[in-house]
Every structure is written in structure tokens, then in C-alpha cells.
Amino acid sequence: MTSSDCGSRQRSKRSARATPVTRLAKTCSVGVIMVRLSDLTPEDAEHLLAKDCPRFATEPFVTGPPLRERRVAIVTTAGLHLAGHATFELRDTSYRVIPGGTPSDRITMSHSSVNFDRSGFQQDINIVFPIDRLCELAEAGEIGTVADFHYSLMGAGWEPHEIADTAHQIAGLLKEDEVNAALLVPV
Amino acid sequence: MRENTEQIRPPRALWVPFPLGRPFGAPHDAAFQRDVARCALTLLERRDGPVILEDFARDAPGQDGETDMEGMVCPVRLPRPDPMGQSTTITDIKREMAQLAPWRERFLTANGRTIVGISGMAIEEAVAFLGTVLETGRSDPVDDGDLGLAVRNTTEDLRNWYVEAASARPGGAASGELLADWFWGETAAGALILALHPVALASENSGFRHVGERALVPRAQQHRLAD
User: Fold this and answer.
1) Does residue B212 share a domain with residue B135?
2) Could you give the number of structural domains in chain B?
């Protein structure tokens, strides 16, 4: 299956029913997080448990419209980008834009970490970038629309404050695309 | 990991019991992937915050990794080369790639896409480049400032090329762990990258040294490195 252009195709449907309320809705996010500790090697488990996970002063929990009215974008830390575009550097806080209609054979990965499995992504892009699944949920009316643009960055080795500027830039772009639901997909 | 997420306390998160690198579980299982997406997105409608951390109850299909890798194209464990033996290693890699080539063609036909190519080199060129780096610690066609990134990208291409080929064999859609054990433990290509590790660590080039320290051999495979 290839990634379709359902984001562009459905934009008119979304625009037709967009209201000032939905345009002003805060972007909510939900993350998909992986792996059993017991499934990791002792070295990987020790490395990940040693991460300095900050505690934030605020708890930015917001609500929004029903899922069937949401415009959803993917934000992944899988280090994806279009083939032929600049690869991610070894330490890199930049991001890449992935237009919703990009054929899957044009999307590649240059994440600098060697410690996660690529073989699933090699077989099926949806394993880390579930664009076809979002399109199906939109077609079924379970979500409103799929965003025109999605975003990829690389999460390896950064403390949260070091990548905050990139996150703010992506959040601004999501708002410009009238996105009110972000699906956060790490690897 | 769930343990990290419990500390960070994001507003909404779905924990899934899948391996690193596979947040939607199983390749080419649209129904299963859709269930994961639906389960995550449904959390957006929950109002019982400020922190919702939900568990996805099912393992991914095929996650037990029982696919048999016995009889792979290079079942004989190759001797680990030392830097002085690099020409033998390159010959072994060429032989392996000739044997794997039909399976990689099958992968390309079936999938219609590849992630090999981030180095910008043809795979044969990438192998030759890595052989030169192993022998000399550097490579003339690449500026010293770019050496680390070039080694990272060519090793990534080489590993991905092998895994694409192996996963196209009948019954070859094994777990990532099995494919990794095969690549690093059974192939001359894996042996080449392992042999590059001490060369990188001893290099005066900081970028190459950084790659050796962080981006050449996975932690789970570092037990294969010579003491």
C-alpha cells in the first residue's frame, strides 16, 4: 500500500465545515510509546532507564472536539525525510516536512541511532508513519481529516530543552494547517 | 518506555508492548495497525486528565520471532577479520551479495520501495569505500570533515541492503532481533562493520570517532566486539 493523498483530497470537506471554534481549538497530542523493559537487552534497558526525564511544572491537558471532527497530523521522531533530501546529521535538531500525498517509495530514514530495528519500516512504512491508517480512519468517518503536512525529526540523545525550539516551530506549522490533533510516533 | 513516560507525565499516551522501531506493531497488518491508531486517537476524547497513560493489551502478530533463520544464504559463520585481512572480507561480502541479490530484487518488486541509498553511493561503491576506510582509516574521495557521516550512512545502507534481501526470502519476515543477530553474527558485512569499530575509536577524526562510539554497532550487538 502506498501513502495516499487523502490529506489534500479531504481538505475541502474539512474546510467546508470548519468553524471559528475548530480553527481556534488547541492542538491536542497523543503519543504511542513502545517496548517492555523485559524485552530489552540489559544494556539497552540500563541506557533507557538512565535517561534524565524532566518533571514539568505544568500539566497541559486540553480537550477539543470529538474525534470525528479532528484534523490529525503525524509527528514522528523516526528520522524520516524525502529520498534525495538532506539526511539527518549525527546530532541534529532540525525537522523535515512530509507532505501528505508523498508516495511511500519517496520516504526514507536516516536516523543516527543504530539501536532500534529498521526491518519493520523497510517492509511497511506504516509501522512508524501510519499515513494509510489515518486515511482509512478518515474515509470511515472516525476522524475528521488528515493534515496536509506531517513532520519528522530525530529524537536520539537530546534533552527535551535542547529540541524545544524545533517543537515550537512544528507546533506553529500544525496550527497554520488547522491541525487540532497530533499523533506522536517515536521509534 | 512506559517507565520514562511515567516520569515525564505527558497528557495522553498509549503504551504498546512492541519492539523498539515498531510502534504500530506488525508490517502489512492494516487491521492491527488501525486498532493501535484508533486506540491512541480515542484518548483525545478522554477528559479525565491531567495524565492518561493507557496500555494496549495485545502483542503484535508474529512478535514471538519464531521464524527459522536456519539455512540463510551464509549459514557458515565467517571468521572475524582483522584490519589486515580486509581484502578477504570484501571478497566475502561480494560473494554474499551475489547470493542475496535475487532476494533483494524480490524485495524491491514486492515492496516497490527501498531505504537503501542515503549515502548517495551505489552499494558496491559503499562496500569499496568501507574497505578502504578499514584499511587506511580514511578515504580520499571523502573530505575528512565528512568521514564520520559517510561511514554512518554507508554502513546503514549496507545493513539495510542485507536486511531487505533477507526479509524477502520465503518465511523471511522474521523479527528484527533475528535479522539483526543474523546480520551481525553470520555475515561478512556485519564482520566488516565490527572490524571498523576499533579503527573508528582510534581515529584522529572526531566525526569518525563519534560514529564509532555511538552509531556503528548497536548496544545489543556489542558483545561481538573483540576485547
Assistant:
1) yes
2) 2
Note whether A104 contacts B: Cβ–Cβ < 8 A: yes
User: CB distance B220–A132 less than 8 Å?
Assistant: no
Q: Domain limits of chain A? A: 6-48+67-185
Q: Give the domain range for residue B42.
A: 2-55
From chain A residues 8-27, the ones with a CB under 8 A of any chain B CB are none
Say whether residue B30 is in contact with chain A using an 8 A CB cutoff.
yes
Q: How many Cβ pairs within 8 Å bridge chains A and B?
A: 240
> 3-state class of A40 per DSSP?
coil
Beta strands in chain A (DSSP E): 28-34, 71-76, 80-82, 96-99, 107-109, 145-146, 149-152, 181-185
**Interval A93-144: pLDDT, tens:** 999 999 998 999 899 999 988 888 899 999 999 999 999 999 999 999 999 9
Q: How much is the ipTM here?
A: 0.86
Do B94 and B43 have their domain in common?
Answer: no
pLDDT tens string B76-92: 343 454 444 556 688 99
**How many CB atoms lie under 10 A from the CB of residue B219?**
17
- Answer whether residue B172 is part of any domain: yes
pLDDT digits (tens, 9 = 90+) for A78-96: 999 999 899 998 888 999 9
Examine residue B94 and state whether it is found in any structural domain, yes or no.
Answer: yes
Q: Do B23 and B133 reside in the same domain of the chain? A: no
In sequence order, what are the residues at sequence separation of 6 or more whose Cβ sits closer than 8 angstroms to the Cβ of residue B221? B180, B181, B184, B185, B194
For chain A, say whether B28 makes contact (Cβ under 8 Å).
yes
Least CB–CB distance from B41: residue in A51, A121, A181: A181
Question: Which of B5, B24, B180 lies at the smallest CB-CB distance from A117?
Answer: B180
